[in-house]
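User:
Can I borrow your eye for a moment on a structure tokenisation matter? Would you put together a sequence-and-structure record for a protein of your own picking? Please set it down just below, with no commentary around it:
AI:
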Amino acid sequence: MNFHSIFPDLAPWVRGLGNAWPASMIKSVPWAFPMIETAHLLGLATLGGCVLVLNLRFMGVGITNERAALIERNLRPWLWAAIGVLIVTGLLMGTVVAQRLYARPAFLVKMLALVSALILSLGVSGSLARNEGALTQPAKLMAGVALAIWLLAVTMFATTHVIVPGTLHLVLAGWLIAMGFGSTLTRILLGAFTVVILIATVVLTNALDNYDVVNERWLLPVSALVVVGFLMWEIAGPKAKPRLTPTLTRLVGLFTILAWVTVAASGRWIGLGGDSG
């Protein structure tokens, strides 16, 4: 599934974008596209820092000696600036490669994940911070909508043959959060699982010769289930350690981080994934 399959009537307009301004101007200047892409990546890095600092605080990790409201207020200008840079540079690059984006499943995944991430960052996280970790009813509603959109994006990412290996980035992000956020027992068990999975894929299965089978049929699904299981146990399990914030707040922090990871991961696979009808 891609934007072409959903909106086929837009094909002539999309084809015309590459020859119209500003795409024509960008194509005429050799250094323009690399400079715009560099600004896009810098904006993404800045946004990533803002997202991590605040949402790790919601999870009870990182800058825990400062009030969430103060952290959010200090990060807000940087967050808005980074989002502005991403939108402007993304639109400029998009006009140049509009036909590619129109036909790529990864771009549809990225747009869905972006909507989810923006709702969580601009609507839910700010409300959480201002209310010191308490979820208001509107924030709960927005979080539910964002979670549904993100799950749709992840489902598409994980079930579309051409881009499914890109979900490894998402699994690795969850793994890092579990290892950093989790208890000693979680680190030991998850570390042991990682050793076993590496031995099974590299030594026993010869993953390089069976890449699609290993990644799509058992490595990614099994790894994702294990990582999600450990994360949920640490955040919401009956024996989870007491944290600085309630369970729902920790979940919002986790899903906000993973939503932005999905945006970045799917974006990296736009150029690598083939077209899908």
About this structure: The chain has a mean pLDDT of 85. Residues 3-268 form one domain. The first helix runs from residue 3 to 6. The radius of gyration is 20 Å.
